[in-house]
Design goal:
- There is one protein chain.
- This protein has one domain: Alpha-Beta Plaits.
- 19% of the residues lie in helices and 35% in strands.
- It contains two helices and five strands.
- A hairpin with a 5-residue loop joins strand 4 and strand 5.
Length: 118
């Protein structure tokens, strides 16, 4: 798989009291966030790691081509439309809030090319 078509996205879950959930492991984090099926558009390779004392899920997304990456990004961007008819995750927003707070676009060697903080 071409390494030039990958990036990382960082997620946390914030409770109503503003504290962050500590995940048991990556499976727990993925289950609690409950990403919608759009995250699998164009069949990217998704890998996960925990950071920040297990309070952050880091998702690495790798695509086989620029076209696959572009189609995937369009599908994900559409989830964030202003009308909020769709959400990027299917978790319970009544007691917690999923936060996507950073994206890192990577060079072919894996070093960070560009970072967006939200």
């Amino acid at each position: 798989m071409a390494s030039q078509f990958h990036h990382k996205r960082y997620f946390q879950i914030r409770k109503n009291d503003s504290s962050l959930i500590t995940f048991d492991d990556t499976d727990d984090a993925v289950a609690q966030i409950a990403f919608t099926s759009a995250w699998n558009t164009n069949s990217p390779t998704l890998t996960y790691a925990l950071a920040d004392s297990d309070k952050t899920l880091v998702m690495t997304i790798k695509h086989s081509s620029l076209d696959n990456q572009t189609g995937w990004k369009t599908a994900i961007d559409n989830l964030y439309e202003e009308d909020r008819s769709t959400w990027p995750w299917a978790g319970d927003d009544s007691t917690v809030t999923v936060e996507h707070f950073k994206t890192e676009w990577l060079h072919e060697d894996g070093s960070v090319s560009f970072t967006s903080n939200f």
